[in-house]
Amino acid sequence: MNFVLDVHCHTISSGHAYSTITENAAHAAKIGMKYIGISDHGPAMPGGACLYNFTNLWSLPEEINGVRVFKGAECNILSGGKLDLESNLLAKMEFVIASFHRGTFPPTDKATHTRAAIAAMENDMHILGHPGDCFFDIDIEAVITAAARTKTIIEINNQSLNPESYRYNGNATVEEILHFCKKKHVPVIASSDAHFSTYVGELSRAKALIEASGINEELVLNTSVERFLTAIRAKREN
């Protein structure tokens, strides 16, 4: 599989990332990555981007260093599955990732996490971020079933598969996630979750698991920007 897209990339606006949008785009151009997304953390994240960071994204050019830059956000899933940006702003984003983070959703139990994840997928978001997080145990089959119903894309997070990541046991969980995505025909997207420019486009671990799963290439959105945009539209129209 040839990957052309990486939409989970952070900048200094996230508060705990270390590169600018221009630096991210420059590295993407260097490695031949044609499309990236900017997905800084929502305002509920301690030290995260403020509201005006998101309302002002449209001051950015469409292309930087010859790389198409999609304007998005990584929202925090809050209690009950709410997101930390309002629906009227989310509707303007080119894509929205929604993820659990310990700083904004203290881990509790599988049932609570599962209900919140499913509720979040009913909102104006498109991608469920790093669902293999060991701190947020979920009923994987129930979440993937809900993803199929809501037309939600499931992220395969490369950084979660890093042996040095604090999200331990990622491989086994992601393999199960891919099993159900394949079974229920749910689209997936590999993401770097880059917090520094040289990690933009680093998708090797996620790509290896995706290929090993045998999932249909048409469900892997990194392989075609047209597939990515079609999946985003399907979610909006659902």
Topology (elements, then pairings):
Blueprint: E1 5-9, H1 21-31, E2 35-38, H2 51-55, E3 63-64, E4 67-76, H3 87-90, E5 95-99, H4 110-120, E6 127-128, H5 140-150, E7 153-157, H6 170-184, E8 188-191, H7 204-213, H8 225-237
Parallel strand pairs: 1-2, 2-4, 4-5, 5-6, 6-7, 7-8
Antiparallel strand pairs: 3-4
Helix pairs in contact: 5-6
Which key terms come to mind for this protein?
single chain, 8 strands, globular, 8-stranded mixed beta sheet
Task: Describe the overall structure.
The protein is an alpha/beta fold and 238 residues long. It is built from eight helices and eight strands. It has helices at 21-31, 51-55, 87-90, 110-120, 140-150, 170-184, 204-213, 225-237; strands at residues 5-9, 35-38, 63-64, 67-76, 95-99, 127-128, 153-157, 188-191. Strands 1, 2, 3, 4, 5, 6, 7 and 8 form an eight-stranded mixed sheet that branches. It is globular.
